[in-house]
Amino acid sequence: MTDRLNALIVILEHDIREDDAEPIINAIQQLRGVLQVEPHVADSIGDAAAEARVRSELTKKLFAVLYKEDKV
């Protein structure tokens, strides 16, 4: 049985200005089946914390590969 989706999340490569995002938002709204597109304002603290966690996890995995550790 196939799962049914009720939303898709689009993550931008980097933060962009609200007025620069308008064409992207308009394009997404033109897609069939899209009811609503909500922009999300960048949260410096939350974004920095998430980036730090990802960077830390990737660093651990990279060291594990470089030093051939079994535990990751």
Structure notes:
This protein is mainly alpha-helical and 72 residues long. It has two helices and no strands.
Largest β-sheet summary: none
Number of helices: 2
Q: Distance between the terminal alpha carbons, to the nearest Å?
A: 33 Å
Structural class: mainly alpha
Fraction of residues in H or I helices: 40-55%
Mean pLDDT: 90
Sketch the topology as an H/E string, one letter per element. HH
- Beta-strand segment tally: 0
Write the layout of secondary structure elements.
Blueprint lengths: L17 H12 L14 H23 L6
Task: Write out key terms for the chains shown.
72 residues, mainly alpha, 49% helix, extended
Short description:
With 72 residues, the chain is an all-alpha fold. It is 49% helix and 0% strand. The chain has helices spanning 18-29, 44-66.
